[in-house]
Amino acid sequence: MVTSVTNLGRSGLYDWIVQRLTAVVLALYTLFLVGFLVATPDLTYGQWQGLFSQTWMKVFSLAALISICAHAWVGMWTISTDYLKNAGVRTVFQLVCAGFLFVYLVWGIDILWSV
Amino acid sequence: MLVSVYRYNPEKDSAPYMQDYNIDIPGGKDVMVLDVLALVKEQDTGFAYRRSCREGVCGSDGMNINGKNGLACITPISEATKGKMDKLVLRPLPGMPVIRDLVIDMSMFYKQYERIKPYLQNDTPAPAIERLQSPEDREKLDGLYECILCACCSTACPSFWWNPDKFVGPSGLLQAYRFLADSRDTTTAERLTDLSDPFSVFRCRGIMNCVNVCPKGLNPTRAIGHIRNMLLNQQI
């Protein structure tokens, strides 16, 4: 068995499932938003704000936000372990990715709960 | 026919290079690439390549023929040149250290094969004669046991190029599933646990290069899918 301490779930199977489940959440969220925009051709700021001020939409958006962070981490971690052979460079790359994802997550939550 | 061959002798050459040979194919016949290699060797005795059975059984002469991995002994030049019979470009299998010319160092490939414990393990008392298997259970091994370890598949796999020390590779995983699927093996759980890390199996991105090049027509991607399903059933 090959061990790694930086992948999301310590197990290949866990990462593989997370990647697929988060993809489903992101697909549903995208389809919903596109559907909403198509169904509301004369969209006003009030309608848009009304949508995001509802609790279920906040939960849905937060699920999509967490999904994109997990999905991106599994993907970027895979890219870094495929192509970056120097451990130092790989560590810096992974730290930068983790930093960005953490900022996006906190910033996203802040935006969602300010509506 | 113009034959362009990868040449590299680490004792003499500072870098690999391609060398061209003009080869007269006797009678203009559609011979195998291995026959062409023999004609190159007649012109240049210093040229090195591996061969043995010359009938697609031993797996010694795996090489990159006009951009696609295959066995020189069972690849007709008409197939390699798509009927044009104009030019052959022969390189060693990609991604592996070159020992000399078309001869590669396969130690990493064998190390991965060794890792999956390619032998039957059974901790129950041995029967008087042999361990029997039903015809249905035996059928499950078809399409798996035929692998000749030529390394055409693993050396066509980018995941194996990037992580040959961590990713088992299509050939090793086909054999891993051959023992996972064997009704006589009692170490299925241990074998699966050994494969559940992020590299051994899950580096496969399913691009199916392995299926595209396998000279025996086997399907490692399908075997990898079966391993994933077994892991899911075991760990969920």
Summarize it.
The complex is a heterodimer of chains A (115) and B (236). Chain A contains 4 helices and no strands. With 115 residues, chain A is mostly helical.
Description of the molecule:
The complex is a heterodimer of chains A (115) and B (236). Chain A is mainly α. Chain A has helices at 12-39, 45-53, 55-83, 87-112. In chain A, α1 packs across α3 (55-83). In chain A, 12% of the residues are buried. The model of chain A has no long low-confidence stretch (mean pLDDT 94). Helix content of chain B is 32%, strand content 13%. Chain B is α+β, with helices and mostly antiparallel strands and 236 residues long. Chain B has helices at residues 33-43, 77-80, 107-115, 135-139, 158-162, 169-180, 188-195, 209-213, 220-235; strands at 2-7, 17-22, 62-65, 68-71, 87-91, 98-100, 103-104.
Q: Percent of residues of chain B in beta strands?
A: 5-15%
- SS-derived structural category of chain B: alpha+beta
Give the count of helical stretches of chain B: 9
Kindly report how far apart the N and C termini of chain B lie.
58 Å
The low-pLDDT segments of chain A are none
In total, the number of strands of chain B is 7
Strand-helix topology:
The complex is a heterodimer of chains A (115) and B (236).
Chain A: H1 12-39, H2 45-53, H3 55-83, H4 87-112
Helix pairs in contact in A: 1-3, 3-4
Chain B: E1 2-7, E2 17-22, H1 33-43, E3 62-65, E4 68-71, H2 77-80, E5 87-91, E6 98-100, E7 103-104, H3 107-115, H4 135-139, H5 158-162, H6 169-180, H7 188-195, H8 209-213, H9 220-235
Parallel strand pairs in B: 1-5
Antiparallel strand pairs in B: 1-2, 3-4, 3-5, 6-7
